[in-house]
Amino acid sequence: MLRFIFRRLMLAFVTLGFLLVIVTLIPNIAPGDPARKIAGGTASPERLMQVTESLGLRDSVLTQLSKLAKSVFTLDFGDSFSVAAGEPVMSLVWTSLGNSAKLVILALLVIVPLSVLGGLVTAYKKDTWIDRTIINVGIAFSAIPDFVAGVFLLAFLAVPVDFFKVQAAAPPGSNILIQIQHLLLPVIAVLMVYFGYIARVTRAGTITALDSDYARTAFMRGLSLPQVFRKHIARNALQPTVAVLGTQLGYLFGGMVALERVFGYQGVGNLILRAVDRADYPVLRAGVLAVAVIYMLATLSADLLIAYMNPRTRQSLGDN
Known about the structure:
about 325 residues; mainly alpha
């Protein structure tokens, strides 16, 4: 197991190294003059020179890469140029990550139980009208982009029903219940997109586990369905679901840009989009790297949880 964790960490560091190279090259290969985009078309030559030196564009690519690597380890990316001029980059990133974490945690608390329950019900009711209804509804909803679902929710829920809020960001100092109230519509939009996908994965894993020899043997021993599921099926049936959730967690943090724009929410995806729009490369680099680290940690955690759920996997990892 320790060797497996070490190999995964080394792979994560290699991936992070490639990403460092890519984000280092962004201002060097982007069309136009990055300093001109930041300083504005009427900036003086002195101002352009100052911005160019601040970005480090006069340095070689290797020097820029070494400085960026140092920024990663020290968590110091300097100050923002245009997203929030003069503000420390990491302060902006931490605030955006905190906002995204609120949305992601609440979404997972709603999505995981409902989607897993839907998958289990469809597996137990395989090829019945209940199975077909849940799966078809889930497929229909998952075909709708999250931002389109958000627009429909705003039109049909937020406008006629005062309880649902148009803005996902609660007023400063609001209690936890008010914050949840403001986040309900984005969470429902994410649920509509992910319910069918996760439910289908759970259904397939549960059907495979129910058709296995160990499940049939457990039923022959006289165990009830809840006992068989708890002792023999759950760990094997839910492994694909855990894998899917691990890979999608990074998207939930950094990929819901359009949905955040629809609800005016200042998450990390929205921060990265504003950094791209305003050519704020320090903020862009820090935001992209933060999402990448979250994605790596999420996939590693999912792999470890799957290994814990499957004794054979733990044994093979121990032998390796």
